[in-house]
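User: Here's a protein and a ligand (iron/sulfur cluster). What would the complex look like?
Assistant: Let me lay out the input and then the predicted complex.
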Amino acid sequence: MDPENWRKKRIYTSEQMSLAKIVLQEVRDGRKLDRALRDHPLSDGGLLAKHMLVAAYRELIDSGAWEENPDFLASIRMKPVRTLSGVTTVTVLTKPYPCPGKCIFCPTENQMPKSYLKDEPGAARAFQNRFDPFEQVSSRITEYNAVGHPTDKIECLILGGTWSSYRRDYQEWFIRRCFDAMNGNEASPGEEPSDHASGAPDLKKLHAAQIINETTAHRNVGLVIETRPDEISADELVWLRQLGVTKVQMGAQSLNDRVLELNQRGHTAADTLHATTLLRAAGFKIVLHWMPNLLGATPASDRADFSRLWQEGYAPDEIKIYPTQLLESAELYQYWQRGEYTPYTTEELIQLVADLKTTIPRYCRVNRIIRDIPSIHV
Ligand code: SF4
């Protein structure tokens, strides 16, 4: 939904607010939420949305009629699991920029960072906000507030191509503007660094924004970037630390050099091991992406490959399993058209992922087992 539409939907009628207050009172008195909602439909026959209940709850608090009750708020908000840990993830995308990778499975879309499609949920929000970091973060905080999620502890997840390939002055500016948004500080954004100027990053400004953030209402408790294993070096780690990065996502994709080469990843399994070793020694959290069903893989080779993650020292703290998806804008599509690539059947893939999940050690969190690409592209 574009920001304008979203704002329009958050202007509530008096009918919506009075019904919502009746529902809230009944729930507070012990009624089940879905029963109360069904018993108080809107005049057009529809049901009240959860964000309407949250808005009515806030009105009751602001007017002094009710006292703040976080447990009650948690019981009426949408997707409560999303922020159950107390930390709210705000995802933002960097602007379209060339990526050093040539991976054959990676989609390309005009006006988007490499590998992202305009209608993936997080990417759509970034596109609507013209990839402006301040707008992306502040609008997401507003949305979370409107649906009753906490926003006092924020993990900022920066996606979009390969972070390390962006100019460092852009990286510094991008993160600083995320902090400005969390700090509620719209003033003096400074120009977005031009791709053609030879500007140096101004870490003093970023560090000032970080210090302000230590006492604001929306504190940053985690900063995540995504990059390639062959971009990680001792120098890069110093830079990431200066930026305040706490967690690094990397595409391992496979630990088989033959498969990596066939898919033109441009790095080896040894690069991934080297990167994870450096990151771990420097105290960063590590998220690896791993892809079954790449060109040249079989269900049996994928099983063997996956076991190496835990037996050979990669040992990520978190993992995203991204089964290869055949997208028309990726070069792999032409391999498929020539009969040189065959996707696994749905049953083969489900069985494979189900088997692999049981082998993941308890210390590793599984973030995803499929990428959220709308099915019209696959
Ligand atoms: S490195 Fe990542 S973004 Fe770049 S081409 Fe490969 S998969 Fe796509």
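Summary: The longest helix spans residues 168-183.
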